[in-house]
Write a structure and sequence with these properties.
The chain has 397 residues and is of the alpha/beta class. The chain contains 14 helices and 12 strands. The longest helix has 19 residues. It starts with a helix and ends with a helix.
Length: 397
């Protein structure tokens, strides 16, 4: 008999994917240039020329067994050491190669981090709004996801609600900053208060509470934003990272786990993750991708278009009367819908070929997400269409 749990998931398809598929199909009818598709968070800028040149050179010059063979379970040693040194230079940390575990993107990094610090029935606290796939990532470990409601005035942490959620079963707290879907980055004050509260609760409960920091959008930070590196503030921090957004490499599925050297069992956690890989088959990421990103650790793609697009949309949306917290990074903006039912709001928008994602699955009903990783020219063309939509459907001028 097939697994009923996964069979049931067939009836719960990703809303984002369904909307993206609809946009693609609609594009075949009217031309995709006429579909204002804000559904999918897929980077819209190319990777760096340096990365491309590095891969081409490797394919021409390097030993095929080196670039195509299995990497060690924990990742290629020289890559791990280079990642550690890059983080030390940039954030004033003291990582060594032994504190780095190479993973297949941020999803692979999270899969290992969750399993390294929890067992079934333990609790992992998550702050809304959150990436919807967290539900399955956590559920499949046997742990329980506990959601802290959103603080919608600024999308920082509601610390009263957070304290109410903390209990002796809390073994990890998951943060995503800058955040998908809100675009907000936790500021220094928030990270300091979070760290102090976790330190206090560790003493009160008599066990470690790990902070798992999911940071695939770390490099997409806008001018003037206060976006500190969380591991600098809390010893028991495990950072999960992907090069998908910084270097526009989502298809390469390459990232890492960085274990704070001051973390409990810091010297063995990466080794444990190698053993976890044996159980979940989520191991040995691409050797080519590891070796190529090693040459590009301190650079990014040209990410400036995202801030340009954000400013265009923020100004237009606020001018139309939307309530929206200005993003500090990422390529998402997260307005409040013009009616209580964001699903209905987004359905009405589809009639205008505006593809928007309702935020119910993000743990924040009444809001919607726009992924503005599209051409600026298309963003500009979408604004009059958006104005027509809100005028005709909601009487906004």
């Amino acid at each position: 008999m097939i697994n009923e749990s996964y069979k049931q998931m067939l009836t719960q398809k990703s809303v984002i994917r369904e909307l993206s598929e609809y946009a693609t199909a609609r594009g075949k009818e009217i031309g995709y240039e006429n579909v204002y598709d804000y559904s999918l968070g897929n980077p819209s800028v190319p990777t760096t020329q340096h990365y491309t040149d590095t891969v081409i050179r490797m394919y021409r010059e390097e030993d095929p067994m080196t670039i195509h063979g299995y990497s060690p379970s924990l990742g290629i040693e020289t890559v791990r050491e280079a990642v550690a040194q890059s983080l030390n230079r940039r954030f004033g940390m003291n990582y060594e190669g032994k504190h780095i575990f190479m993973a297949s993107g941020a999803a692979g990094a999270l899969a290992h981090a969750f399993r390294a610090v929890t067992k079934p029935e333990d609790e992992i606290i998550v702050f809304a709004p959150f990436f919807p796939e967290y539900r399955e990532y956590i559920r499949r470990t046997g742990a329980k996801m506990v959601v802290v409601p959103p603080k919608t005035d600024d999308f920082q942490i509601d610390f009263d609600a957070f304290e109410a959620a903390l209990n002796e079963k809390t073994m990890a707290v998951l943060i995503n900053t800058p955040n998908n879907p809100s675009g907000v980055a936790y500021n220094t004050q928030t990270i300091e208060k979070l760290s102090a509260m976790l330190s206090q609760k560790q003493q009160e409960f008599g066990h470690d509470i790990f902070l798992i920091s999911d940071e695939p959008y770390r490099e997409i930070i806008f001018e003037g934003a206060d976006a500190p590196y969380p591991a600098r503030f809390y010893d028991n921090t495990i950072t999960c990272y992907s090069f998908s957004k910084s270097l526009s490499l989502p298809g390469e599925r390459i990232g890492y786990v960085a274990i704070n050297p001051k973390c409990t069992d810091a010297d063995i956690l990466a080794v444990m993750m190698g053993q976890i890989s044996r159980g979940i088959g989520h191991n040995c990421p691409s050797s080519t991708a590891q070796l190529a990103v090693m040459q590009c650790l301190d650079e990014t793609s040209d990410l400036s278009v995202y801030e340009t697009n954000m400013n265009l949309l923020y100004d237009a949306l606020t001018d139309m009367g939307f309530e929206v917290v200005k993003p500090a990074g990422t390529f998402y903006i997260f307005p409040k819908a013009l009616e209580e039912d964001a699903v209905a709001f987004c359905q009405k928008a589809k009639a205008y070929d505006l593809i928007l994602v309702p935020a119910d699955n993000f743990g924040c009903p009444g809001y919607f997400r726009m992924a503005y990783c599209i051409d600026t020219e298309k963003v500009k063309r979408s604004i009059p269409v958006f104005k027509k939509f809100v005028t005709e459907e909601y009487g906004k001028q």
